[in-house]
User: Fold these one by one.
Assistant:
Number 1:
Amino acid sequence: MARISPQEIMKRQEKADARKESWRTIYEECYEFALPQRNMYSGEYEGKTAGQNKMARVFDATAINSTQRFANRIQSALFPPYREWCTLEPGNEIPKERSAEVREALEVYNTRMFDVIRQTNFDLAMSEFLLDLCVGTAVMLIQPGDEEVPVRFIPVPQYLVALEEGPHGTVDNVYRKLRLRGEAIQRQWPDAKIPAQLQERIEKKPDEEIDLIEATVFNVDEDTYCYHLIHAKDKNAASELVYRTMDISPWIVSRFMKVPGEVYGRGPLVTALPDVKTLNKVKELVLKNASLAVSGVYTAADDGVLNPQTIQITPGAIIPVARNGGAQGESLRPLRAATDFNTSQLVINDLVMNIKKMLYDDSLPPDNMSARSATEIVQRMKELSQNLGSAYGRLITEAMTPIVRRVLVVMDQMNVIDLPLKVNGLQVKVVPTSPLAQAQNMEDLDSVLQFAQIAQAFGQAGQMAINQEEMLTYVAEKMGVPQKLLTSPEQKEQMMMEMQQMMMAQQQQQAALPAEPPV
């Protein structure tokens, strides 16, 4: 596969944008009513609504709060801040006799990886990443940094990104619209080759924003990813500023739920959108009804005395009229209001409960309780795991594992680690250790511990049925006990030899003692 020209990149980006346009209506409504501050569909990228109020049509904040809570719950359950939410373990290709040795070495790499992550903006980026995931599609760019921040996590609003899917439902190609000040291009991409015409333009107006296209395209023949940065002012005269080849894609693209044949995902907000719009409309009607109840509507007789154009209905106002009764009726009469809207409260309560349930904001018991027990926390995690269903596995496959793989590659490029690790599930695999994963591990341990208790009731026969050494190793792995706290096979063998020597010494001492005289 030959190197793709900038003109071809722009053509493919335009086609990908055109295919994405069919998602505009549904995504725009999700952002308008649940994530209005991140809504770029209203023209923010074009500079039309920067700094303006984006909540003019929002009358209810239930979806906004529940969406924020969805992101917080997923982050605390899968990517808890300032904690090690996964561990690197030997894959199936590692021989069993070397498993403990390799596991101990991988723990060092795992600790170093999370030390690097804590120096970055990962926790902030993941929060924005999960907000977009609630809509359906979340995108993040992971790039090398500098000595102070070795890895940079850049959450990209999906409005700016167009995707192309490869085989097996994976995202191969990513196109991003980017607008940057001219003076910042060389700083962000030191290897950028800026044409003379563009350089002259930057020197004249360094603060002027330049339209760019950041494209990552998979090269099938070489099994690599080609990274392009293109100046996109004119399609026919497009110029390539940066070209790089990478072993893995720098993009992390995760879909909450994916329908076959569709590239973009559908999140819980898409499911809850009808109720969100209905609740918003009901609240709007309630407010209008309240306004009518407060100020009222009146009919006025144009009798030459009362001027309907100058009437002001305010407390203490005196309105001059021709009559307040009589055969022709009063000059000013309140218009009969519509039917009372009290039944709307029942509709509102049902809609609020449905929205919270669909956005996983229905935790039980209530969160206002104090001193939560460990059992309650485990039960919450079990409930969240059951509600997430297949989305949990997709988050591990499309978010957690690619993030770890990309971070290790960047660390290798920045010379933070000595040996590159191949995270492919065969040599090294990523195992979640977050609270949600631990809750699932505890379910596995429950059956093992129950079997151990049942085996004890059978006495010696039950003890013989259990390989206690392997069972303890299994329990330690499920509970995430560090390998350095466990004895290695060599240490176990040394301890067995020492115990045998002690027993032989005791036997020799007993044999050397004089026999007791018979009584």
Number 2:
Amino acid sequence: MASVIRELRRRPGLVLRPIAISGATLAAATVAIAVLQAVARIPAAAPVYLLPVLAVGVACGTVSAVATAVISFLLYDFLFTQPVYALTVRDPNEWLDLLLYLAVAVAIGRLAALQAERATEASLRAREAQALFRISRALSTSGSLSQAARLVLAELAASTTTDRIWVGLGSTAPAEQTLADTASGETASRDTASRDDGAPPQPVATWVVVLQRTPDDEPAHWTRTHVGSRARMPTGQGESAIHRIRIEVPGEVLGSLWIVRGPTDGDPDRVETRILSAAADQLGQAVRRDQLARDALEAEVVRRSDGLKTALLDSVSHDLRTPLATIRAAAGSLLDPAIRWTEAERRDALRSIDLEAERMNRLVRNLLDLSRIEGDALRPELEPHDVDELVDRVVRRIATGKKVRVDLPPDLPPILVDDTYLDEVVTNLVENAVRHGGPTIRVGALESRDGGVVVITVEDDGEGVPDADLGHLFEKFYRVSRRGEGSRRGMGIGLTVANGLTLAMGGTLAAGRSPLGGLALHLRLPSVAIPPEPALVAASDRS
């Protein structure tokens, strides 16, 4: 009874509307009956009163229809039954007529009210289904959890009576971080003292109304709950009620859906409660999916990182073990007093040690360069350099039994590069051709037709690279499967380092097929315009 009185005080229209409709329709029916009896001489016009009963039943429900039926019964008895203007009936047969009329009026009012209630319930269910569909669609099509939360809150604000809604994520209310808020539409901290997104501070109250849900089919209900001893912050909303719905999955509380309603709105009705409860459940599943996706991504990153580390360690250990074994064997033989060496053999052994040490040095340098490339720590010092000088230096340094042919035009312009970086790039390209190519290797260069770029090409006459592998040559640890290589396949970082150093100098490195039949690597680098000689300028001026 107390809840009914509170509802009537909160919504006085619940009483005034039925009274107004019933009074107007009964007055019209009374006038109609009087006219029918006086003009048309119809003695029994009581069924006219069924029209107000029907209208009130459709518009206001069963209770109002039954009350209207009783009032119409009393009006007809008082105004049109002998003796008039008295609630007594002279003829006992008229009592039967009046009671039958009352029963029919109550039945019609009840049926009309039930039909109206069913129509209203169907409309509410349709509104609820549409709202839940839009919420589900927002959660399934949004690119991020925060975007989906903002769309869900916008839908809840349109489907329910609320002044403000926000979503907080955290295991407890004080620890929650705001994911979305209808007051700002942006992500913000739940700490009201540190919010700078332009939204008003979130209200903090000692008491909130919490939705208590049961695992069975029992309907959820709202319960006033004490949440702390903090004083309410000024919100500009008077005595607005704060409602909370926990966002949870089995065994874990993920956050809360917070709702601020006006002081006269009371608790959400059944439809609003179902919408809010379903939205909280779907938000909980979305948060859980987001957490699982992040965990899966982190696990995949760790797995790939472990795979790369394993590949790196395998390759490094293999590539280091071979030169170390050669160095130890040569050094041990040189130190063995039982072995007599000629001067030429001693020089060959020392040269072998030097070559294997240089090979180890290049391996370590490539690893260091790779780490600098990945850490974006390359700082090239770009200066003009002659192409032929840099290329000849690399070719002379690389010892190989293969024929390396250098074909450089004499009129090539200087290129703007870091000589140390370019030395490493060309070294890696030539060594790649020496390792995987045929007996002939060609290093050429030409200036692009539109100028401004010099293209250095390193190509071989080997078996080449399959078309499917050309696009992956510059990927870290990528190695092309070749016949007869066994386990000596290299680490797969030489071309990666060459590509990274080239990009740092403002150039590009591309792979393709060579006219020789093998692989061609094209190194494009910016050139520098050569200013005219002063003597030639003076001579041209005199002429």
Number 3:
Amino acid sequence: MAELYRSIHALTYYHVAASSTLHTDATACSAAIHVASPVSSLVQQTQHAFLSTDVALQLKTSTEEYEEPGDERPITCPNCGEQVSKGSGKPRGPLTNSKQPNSISADILFDCASRFSRDKPSSSIDRLSKKFTGSPDYIFERDSSFYPEQYALEGLFSKPLFAVAMKESYAGRHLTQQYYLIYGQTPRCWQRVIVSAIFKITRDPSAIPQASAPDNIDAACKVLPNAVDIILNKLLSRIRLFESVTRLSLTLIENEDREIIQESSQVESVEDRLEVSLSQKDEILHDVEVMGLSMVPEAEVLVASQIKSTSFTVRWNEQACVERKVAFASAGRDGDNGLHDFIEDLKLLNSLRGCHGVSQLVGVVFDDSLQHLKGYLYEAPLIFSLPRVFYAASSNSFAVPWSVRELWSKQITQAIASVHQKGITIGVLGRGQVGLRADGSAILLGFETSTRYMVDDEGEVPPELRSTDGSPLHQRMSDRTDIFQLGMLFWLLAEQKNNITGSRCSRSVCTYFPRHQCTADHTNPVELPPCFNSIPTYFSDIIRWCRSPNPSARPTARKIAEILSYESDIEACPRNVLEFLNTCCGAANTFSVHCDNCGALSHYLHYHCYACQFGNFDLCQDCVAQGIHCYKPEHILVKRTMKNGSYVHSS
């Protein structure tokens, strides 16, 4: 790929040289034009990147000096016979107005012509070509602002703005929305931004979007309302951002065409003092030093795609990783501190380095001054998470053999037993916390230990942690919490499903319509529906033991691992399954949403409500076609599609 960039850059300059010196003579330029013509369309597509007005993208910056070999003899132009001196061996001074890049282009053209001269078949074009091709020291690539992904015709990761949380509040006729955002100034520089947007409501009904998505709903990829997204993308590109956290304040109104626009061009931009005071920068730097972790400059990390709100697939040092971006301290509920939870999860992952069956911590990402924490990196399995596997299998009518799912169950349990042996609780143990390595083996991914990441309406929270008065989860998690969630994970493996949504009513012979509004006990089950007859009895028994309402009656991970080791027939993923996983799952999109009515998984098109379930409500095409809506008929469902690894509005 680097060779391609170098070649295109060289040909671009030849193209400019030919076009800028045609007044000399077409015959003298014929060689250069002959080289440039076959690639003229490619040059036209790419020269806007290479021929930037930024001096960093020129052959040399305007302050650098140029040096030519001392033994260079004059050469003769084959057209006019003029001798052109190539220097006396002494450094030239800085480029001035009398020696601009167009003059350099002319020199390059003469060198190109002289390559075909019988008087001097070996000209200085050979020395220039060493700079253009084959050299890791090529000046264009050595520049600190050069990143190859910026010069691709279609960027690998073009979306720069992501929402972590959204809060709303009313004061009379004014709606105030707080948006907690991660913004990519460049593909290698990401900043945290809090936007306070005051919406002035001037009419009823109003087209002003309402969105509420707490940061504890981390598995979902939150998307800003389209009008707000457009405004903030334009705004952030010209605002000075702080390395810590930037707070912006602006006012938005609805015009006569029912479009959301800025009331004025005035925007207040300040450093968020609350986030700075809660960040404890010095303590974080000390903890990283004590743990002996690798400190990775952010400029070395290339973001590829989004997994969930704060997690991205990235590449660093030729290694595929997952980067979990640093959280906001103030984005959660009152009393929550997302940054504190983030640091605790980092410490937990660090304590599990070398633990079998657990993704390994790779390093901690800082800004280029190594002063501000930006995230941490951990191992990214090649095939990634179980939801991707089951979606790919369903899409390709491929049934993952029971023996393979049984093997994954054993590997997952052995990893959990290893973690528990260290006296550590995993915390949130869902389908997204299990990934597959390239050899098809299952491992546990990055942990989220806070109870605020547990979903209290899909059978994931054990009875002892469920609140009876509407208050947040109030007890500490334990290894028995992990085992209760393991029962759900085993049930999903047995059923080859991504979630229990859609199965709750149908398996309980419930005909409530639409299903997502059913409030019966089976919508948040403790005991799960029986597995299909093809599943061995012993496995169904393990699921029932894990889901016991009595925590002390649940078996330990070690005991379950012993049973699975005795029952499992294979020790490695079969070749045909491995080929399918690497071919289909590796090429699948990184994240998806499931329909909150039927449970269908969508990687492409779905309909989203910004208000219901804290902005985490989606419906598939089939359910919408049946006339199913969200909880309130007056809400607008937004049609969203996948593009370049991110969800965008299509209507």
